[in-house]
Design goal:
CATH architecture of chain B: 3-Layer(aba) Sandwich
Number of helices of chain B: 9
CATH superfamily of chain A: ABC transporter involved in vitamin B12 uptake, BtuC
Structural class of chain A: mainly alpha
Structural class of chain B: alpha/beta
Largest sheet of chain A: none
Oligomer: heterodimer
Strand content of chain B: 25-35%
Largest sheet of chain B: 6 strands, mixed
CATH superfamily of chain B: P-loop containing nucleotide triphosphate hydrolases
CATH class of chain A: Mainly Alpha
CATH class of chain B: Alpha Beta
Number of strands of chain B: 11
Order of helices and strands of chain A: HHHHHHHHHHHHHHH
Shape of chain A: globular
Radius of gyration of chain A: 20 Å
Distance between the termini of chain B: 44 Å
Largest interface: A-B, 21 and 30 residues
Helix content of chain A: over 70%
Number of domains of chain B: 1
Helix content of chain B: 25-40%
Number of strands of chain A: 0
CATH topology of chain B: Rossmann fold
Number of domains of chain A: 1
Strand order of the largest sheet of chain B: 5-6-7-3-8-9
Radius of gyration of chain B: 18 Å
Chain lengths: 325, 249
């Protein structure tokens, strides 16, 4: 309960900080008025066109990645698992790259996120086909690795064969991940899918708790492994697919956040789910604020900063685990 | 009224049956030992009876929906898996998952009873993963007890426990049976099986070779035929004792 309050307070504080930060110094009342569509029309435009989509997307993408990471680690009973493991983010990236490469994204603004989503769903379908709806967790990982590898190879192929240096440039930058210069349309596209996927993932708490005892133990406690796996796959595909579609590939959140919060949740997978959603939102908001503070004029990419924050944090955790064990 | 009834239960791995046409019933008050050499099909029989693997024939448990089945039978698998460093109390409370989650008091009581039976009350706030192997095994037994299902099925629960803990655990199972529950437990220690079980089922290559009172089942001929063991059960003043003499080629 305390943890929930602390994390919620942190997310709210970071949301306010993110909304207040920008080229135009705005007062808190102008910020809030602008979000609600009241006050100076210029302020309303700045808030609704620039800062609100950016802030909301950072929180949304972070929550999606944190939550899916926690669910994936709980299901596989492995702290090294992350949402990218089942190939959803790799495939979404491939869809986006194809949209950029073919010029589809130039012709139609939402072509990129829609293609990314389509490919994320395709990845899940492929994994289900490979691993079967009743396959064990090992077949699921192997199928995920195969799909990820395939998506990665095809992405490289698209870059390799690209005759247009601008498209190549655009692809490389898109793949670094960012929530800058997104519109409310992007938010409207991603939010319902992240909410749907998140809602499905949050129902898994009981089953993931039971899985602490292994698959046999959980099944004997009345948990259906088939239903759990299907919900996990579709929840992750919807949440991470939608997040990747609008923000590009942002790594480390799904890996680091559950790891960081696990000791604070008494290691219970069910409590870790919502904690990681809030923690993921906080972490990505922090990274996005850092992006704007460190080099405001160079458009530093979120994924880059995230990895720069995430990797040392992860090393520190490994070091701590080594000393503890 | 029986707590478990199997009719011609058969499990095939490829064309070859691992469990072959097993029929049995278990009634309240019974503490049934499932014995047999390695590979006789003890684990497979119990997993199939719970509906954890594909099988032919009928099991009264697999006829039930998943939630009702979990309230009818508790299962203690052989692999002692504890995936996360949760506290002993949290782990034991997982046994209450099949029950109504709103009954918070009942849950705490059941967890307390289970910890008490296994002598783990002092460990309640310790992290389960930091305990020794034998202690973890006892925590997992407590988890199955907390389920308070009419039937407890345990797969080699006392393997790896120290001698006192082995006897204490089987005493807990005997108590459960006396209280009107039933226990089906697979064992390798034939002396303990003969002393603590009310009935033994001897499995040989997937079939029931004998089913009855412990001393009737453990005859010299069956020890030789099924276990390939030259030996016999001695009658001592403390109860039966297996005198194993040699391996038969």
């Amino acid at each position: 309960m305390k943890l929930a309050l602390a994390l919620s307070a942190l997310v709210i504080a970071l949301l306010m900080a993110s909304l207040s930060l920008g080229y135009a110094p705005l007062s808190l009342s102008a910020v809030l008025g602008g979000v609600l569509g009241a006050g100076d029309p210029l302020h309303v435009m700045v808030m609704q066109e620039i800062r609100l989509p950016r802030t909301a997307l950072a929180a949304l993408v972070g929550a999606a990645l944190g939550l899916s990471g926690a669910a994936m680690q709980g299901y596989l009973r492995n702290p090294l698992a992350e949402p990218g493991l089942i190939g959803v983010s790799g495939s979404a990236a491939l869809g986006a790259v194809i949209a950029l490469q073919t010029g589809l994204s130039a012709a139609f603004a939402l072509a990129l996120p829609l293609m990314a989503l389509l490919f994320a769903l395709g990845a899940v379908a492929l994994i289900l086909l490979l691993a079967g709806p009743r396959g064990g967790s090992l077949t699921l990982i192997l199928a995920g690795i195969a799909v990820s590898a395939l998506a990665g190879a095809l992405t490289s192929l698209a870059l390799n064969l690209s005759s247009n240096p601008y498209a190549t440039f655009e692809i490389v930058f898109w793949m670094m991940g960012s929530v800058a210069d997104r519109s409310l349309t992007h938010l409207a596209l991603a939010a319902p899918l992240v909410a749907l996927g998140g809602a499905v993932l949050l129902t898994l708490g009981r089953g993931l708790d039971a899985l602490t005892l292994g698959e046999d133990g959980a099944q004997a406690l009345g948990v259906s492994m088939t239903a759990l796996r299907l919900k996990l796959l579709f929840g992750t595909a919807a949440a991470v697919g939608a997040a990747t579609a609008v923000a590009g590939a942002v790594g480390f959140v799904g890996l680091v956040v559950p790891h960081l919060l696990r000791p604070l949740c008494g290691a219970r997978p069910s409590r870790l789910l919502w904690a990681s959603a809030l923690g993921g939102a906080a972490m990505l908001l922090t990274a996005d604020i850092a992006v704007r503070l460190i080099l405001p004029e160079r458009d530093l990419k979120l994924g880059v900063v995230m990895a720069l924050i995430g990797a040392p944090l992860f090393l520190h955790l490994i070091y701590k685990t080594r000393r503890g064990g | 009224m029986s707590l478990l009834s199997l009719e011609a239960l058969t499990v095939k791995r490829g064309p070859c049956p691992v469990v072959d046409g097993v029929s049995l019933t278990i009634a309240p008050g019974e503490c049934v030992g499932l014995i047999g050499p390695n590979g006789a099909g003890k684990t497979t029989l119990m997993r199939a009876a719970l509906g954890l693997m594909k099988h032919e024939g009928r099991s009264s448990l697999t006829d039930l929906p998943a939630g009702a089945r979990a309230r009818a039978a508790a299962w203690l698998p052989q692999s002692r898996e504890i995936a996360w460093p949760v506290t002993v109390e949290t782990l034991v409370a997982l046994g209450r998952l099949p029950h109504d989650s709103r009954a918070g008091d009942l849950r705490a009581e059941a967890v307390g009873r289970a910890l008490d039976r296994m002598g783990l009350t002092a460990f309640a706030q310790r992290r389960a993963t930091e305990l020794s192997g034998g202690e973890q095994a006892r925590v997992l037994i407590a988890r199955a007890l907390a389920q308070e299902a009419p039937l407890l099925m345990a797969d080699e629960p006392i393997a790896g426990l120290d001698p006192a803990a082995q006897i204490a655990t089987l005493r807990v199972f005997e108590d459960l049976a006396r209280e009107g529950h039933a226990v089906l437990v697979s064992l390798h220690d034939l002396t303990l099986a003969a002393r603590h079980c009310t009935r033994l089922i001897l499995l040989d290559r997937g079939r029931i070779a004998a089913d009855g009172l412990p001393l009737e089942v453990l005859s010299e001929a069956r020890l030789a035929e099924v276990f390939h063991l030259r030996g016999h059960m001695l009658q001592t003043e403390d109860g039966p004792l297996l005198q194993a003499l040699d391996v038969l080629g």
